[in-house]
Amino acid sequence: MSGVLVYSEQPPLTLQNLTFASSLGYPAAAAVLGPQGESWSEQYFNHGAQRVYCMDDPSLSGLQTDIVSEALCQIADHAEAEIVLISSTLRGREVAGRLAQKLHVGCITDAAKLRAEEGQWIATRYSLGGKTLSEQVLNSGRKVIAVNPNTFQAEPLASGVKGDVVEVAPRAAVSPVRIIEQKPKPDTGINIESAEVIVCIGRGLESEDDLSMIQEFADIVGGVVACTRPISHDRHWLPEERMVGISGKKISPSLYFGIGVSGQIQQMAAVLDAKVIVAINNDRNAPIFQNADYGIVGDLYQVIPDLIEKLSR
Ligand SMILES: Cc1cc2nc3c(=O)[nH]c(=O)nc-3n(C[C@H](O)[C@H](O)[C@H](O)COP(=O)(O)OP(=O)(O)OC[C@H]3O[C@@H](n4cnc5c(N)ncnc54)[C@H](O)[C@@H]3O)c2cc1C
Questions:
Q1: What pLDDT, on the 0 to 100 scale, is given for residue 129?
Q2: Are 229 and 237 in contact (CB under 8 A)?
Q3: Beta strands 132-136 and 120-127: pairing type?
Q4: How far apart (Å, rounded) are the C-alpha atoms in residues 266 and 17?
């Protein structure tokens, strides 16, 4: 048994994990479920997949996790995959656990890093509530590992691979879950994961009304407003899609402003790929200054209007 099978319900994330798997020299394959069918196959081949396993069936249309894990179990057996790499999205985490249970193998989710050394797959995960990192390995022969989105960058191969598309017939799967209604989330058109400039606000902001000042600053620097967890989850001033952190979005902008943000590890872990980090905080001992390239110790209610005034000249 050898090779890596890669799956995500979000094809761009499959490209990221395929790039990683093929860079290790392992035979890589991708699984495609449901009606999106073969439309992504060429891209998968270009990112290192030697095979694309497609399964389509009306039962897969809602991508229910119990049906998806059953389908992946079948494909993993068909492909004789040693490792199944899944993206650790909300749905992916659940699929990973269910799949591992069906395959009777070990499972790691939320891997913030992953490397292969001497045949061992070593995953780095946040432990103790995110205060520390641990390295974990699975002792089972086959393994299911769910890796955080954006851990790897998708890069097409210089010379594309021409692989095979393999249709796998689904086994009849009956789910006790019945979908009664599906509602799309409102699309704000803003994706902080791909933004080049992020203006992140934290609990230093005193009132929701002050968001307009932050938005004005963000407009001047060409940035997108993001936030820490207390702002999205406790105060509900911004939607959760704007939350940066290990339980929110991982970002990699060219420029990051942390304004009234303390810089706890659970937040900063998702920021450290930013090229330049600017911190504005009235506490000179705030942890964010340890990671900042530029720091302004001061009251944001003085610093931000000053910056708006100077940058608008
Ligand atoms: C398992 C786990 C997962 C978590 N995941 C996340 C996550 O994904 N994202 C996340 O954000 N958090 C996460 N957290 C919470 C995280 O630990 C912190 O509590 C949170 O990030 C703190 O948010 P904050 O910086 O806005 O608030 P605070 O820590 O309260 O910091 C506010 C900062 O504002 C400064 N300040 C106050 N007034 C002013 C002013 N007028 N001018 C300038 N500065 C001012 C203060 O000095 C302070 O440093 C997680 C926690 C756990 C346990």
A1: 63
A2: no
A3: antiparallel
A4: 23
Distance (Å) of CA 105 to CA 64, 144, 146: 21, 7, 13
Residue entry with tokens 């179990």: 73
Output the CATH code of domain 192-311. Answer: 3.40.50.1220
Q: Which two tokens stand for residue 266?
A: 């659970």
For ligand 1, atom 41: residue with the closest CA: 299
Residues at CB less than 6 angstroms from ligand 1: 129-130, 202-204, 228-230, 243-248, 260-262, 264, 266-267, 280-283, 286, 299-301
DSSP 88: -
Ligand 1 atom closest to residue 270's alpha carbon, by position in its atom list = 8
CATH 3.40.50.620 fits 4-167, yes or no: yes
CA 54 to each of CA 194, 214, 227, 244, 281: distance values in angstroms, whole numbers, following the listed order: 29, 46, 39, 34, 51
What the block records as the tokens of 201 is: 């606000």
CA angle centred on 267, ends 23 and 301, rounded to 5°? 135
Q: How far is the CA of 136 from the centre of ligand 1 (A)?
A: 28
Distance from the CA of 228 to the center of ligand 1, in angstroms?
A: 6
Task: Judge whether 4-167 and 192-311 match in fold.
Answer: yes
Q: Which of 99, 20, 117, 34 is nearest to 108 (CA)?
A: 99
Question: Could you read off the pLDDT of 248-283 as tens digits, one per residue?
Answer: 888 889 999 999 999 998 899 889 889 999 999 999
User: What are the residue boundaries of the structural domains of the chain, listed by start?
Assistant: 4-167, 192-311
Model pLDDT, residue 190 = 86
